[in-house]
Specification:
The complex is a heterodimer of chains A (172) and B (282). With 172 residues, chain A is an all-alpha fold. Chain A is built from 7 helices and no strands. Chain A is globular, with a radius of gyration of 17 Å. The two termini of chain A are 31 Å apart. In chain B, strands 1-2-5-4-3-12 form a 6-stranded antiparallel β-barrel. Chain B has a 6-stranded antiparallel barrel with strand order 6-7-8-11-10-9. Chain B has 4 domains: 31 residues, no CATH class; 57 residues, no CATH class; 67 residues, Rod shape-determining protein MreC, domain 1 (Thrombin, subunit H); 75 residues, Rod shape-determining protein MreC, domain 2 (Thrombin, subunit H), CATH 2.40.10.350. Chain B is an alpha+beta fold. The chains are: A mainly alpha (172), B alpha+beta (282). Chains A and B meet through α2, α4, α5, α6 and α7 of A and α1, α2, α3 and α4 of B.
Chain lengths: 172, 282
């Protein structure tokens, strides 16, 4: 009985995996500056939120996504609310795609992700530069977008595997 | 045509307005709340200021804890890299030491002479108040270059204080909470510091580039600036005292751009000094 309880507790922790990853990624902002890779950066929370909202929307609550956006703004020093807006819009785009999709396809999801981050980032940087008068390095932003887009397909493969492992094949 | 537009509207409405299973809030309500926060942030309304202060206290400490594993990997990587470079570095450092020692005698003489001259013109010289802080978070987002230090208003930190690594200027305090403060690095795009370029004593503005160097702007005497010249704070504006070293000038002969390579490596900051120069000289 004790063994069973332990197992179900472990399973519960694994089911909270996306939430833990989201919190860690917004607080930690994995950066690889120490590797001296010029311009290299990607937005991991974008990939995480888009994927889990699309495939299993209950895994990440909208309230939690909103709160994690606020924390991300505090850590990175952006005007408060900007990341929350970006994350929630990504949720909206993925919910829209989920509603119109009859036969899911990884490639279609990937390209729609590219479109989503382009639109969301354009809106966000418009707000940052026009309303808050913050100067931005557009070259860095473009490279960040490109890497985020390219890395989606890799992470979606990993997340799909995790989804099958933890929630069963019917969830995918 | 009409049907496909209806489908689009239904899908949008369902995505944004309908509260989904297992979701406590509707998406559109949260987006609306976010817009409210953004507007309050723009006009610096009190409720948002309080929200920010409380979030900061939680976020900075949590970030420090959450970053421990990554920082461990980072330190191990740097330590391994340095280990392999130690022989070459030792040789270069020995040569540098000999050179610096010879310069040191000269600078000691200049300092003494400076003190004597200051006393002649009866200029007051107070020791600036210095606070040492540990870097809690040095996450460089691609858009903002800043660090968070574990010293706040309770330690006497004030907005605008100069922040130094050893004797080099690295930035200024732009945000203070009770226990922490945010330092905007000189490399940030929004950083602007008045500088003196020596030799030739050229006044200019050093702007951040968003990368690992600064850019010299707003000077009519670009041609007089020599390669390898040194940029010091000019003291204009009264925020920093004059003569704090910042970095070396690098002139690009192709695009005629004048950049500054900082003396301090902003990716390796562990402890920094925060100094207030207000009332330093009268």
């Amino acid at each position: 009985m004790g063994e069973l309880n332990k197992l179900s507790n472990f399973r519960k922790i694994l089911e909270k995996g996306p939430i833990i990853l989201l919190i860690v990624s917004v607080l930690n902002e994995f950066d690889f500056n120490y590797l001296n890779l010029k311009y290299f950066s990607f937005n991991f929370p974008f990939i995480l939120i888009y994927f889990w909202s699309l495939k299993r929307s209950g895994s990440l609550g909208y309230g939690l996504i909103f709160l994690s956006g606020l924390f991300n703004d505090i850590v990175t020093g952006l005007p408060i609310g900007v990341s929350s807006l970006a994350y929630l819009l990504i949720c909206g785009f993925s919910a829209y795609l989920r509603n119109i999709t009859l036969r899911p396809s990884a490639i279609k999801d990937w390209f729609f992700f590219g479109f989503t981050i382009l639109v969301v980032n354009s809106l966000i940087y418009l707000i940052i530069s026009l309303i808050f008068n913050v100067e931005l390095n557009y070259y860095s932003i473009l490279v960040n977008l490109l890497f985020t887009f390219l890395f989606y397909i890799i992470f979606s493969g990993l997340f799909n595997y995790y989804l099958k492992l933890i929630f069963g094949a019917h969830s995918v | 045509m009409q049907a496909s537009r209806d489908d689009f509207v239904i899908a949008i409405r369902s995505a944004f307005l309908k509260k989904e299973n297992k979701q406590k809030f509707s998406l559109v309500a949260l987006i609306f709340l976010t817009f409210l926060i953004l507007i309050s942030e723009k006009f610096s309304l009190k409720p948002v200021e309080y929200l920010k202060i409380s979030l900061k206290e939680v976020a900075y400490r949590s970030t420090f804890i959450v970053s421990i594993p990554e920082n461990f990997i980072k330190k191990s990587y740097i330590a391994t890299k340095n280990h392999f470079l130690v022989y070459e570095e030792n040789k270069a450092l020995k040569e540098r030491l000999d050179f610096e020692l010879s310069k040191n005698y000269n600078s000691e003489y200049i300092i003494e002479e400076n003190k004597r001259l200051k006393s002649t013109i009866e200029e007051f010289e107070n020791a600036p108040s210095e606070i040492i802080g540990k870097v809690l978070v040095d996450k460089k987002s691609p858009f903002l270059r800043s660090i968070i230090v574990n010293r706040g208003s309770k330690d006497g930190i004030e907005l605008g204080m100069a922040v130094m690594d050893k004797s080099y200027l690295i930035g200024k305090v732009v945000d203070v909470t009770f226990t922490t403060s945010r330092v905007l690095l000189l490399s940030d795009l929004n950083s602007k510091v008045p500088v003196d370029i020596m030799p030739n004593n050229i006044q200019s503005i050093l702007s951040g580039s968003g990368e690992h160097h600064g850019v010299i702007q707003y000077t009519r005497q670009q041609s007089l600036i020599e390669n390898e010249a040194v940029a010091f704070t000019s003291g204009a504006g009264g925020l920093f005292k004059s003569g704090i070293p910042i970095g070396k000038i690098q002139k690009d002969p192709i695009n005629l751009k004048t950049t500054v390579t900082f003396f301090s490596d902003f990716s390796q900051l562990r402890y920094v000094k925060m100094i207030s120069f207000t009332g330093d000289t009268e």
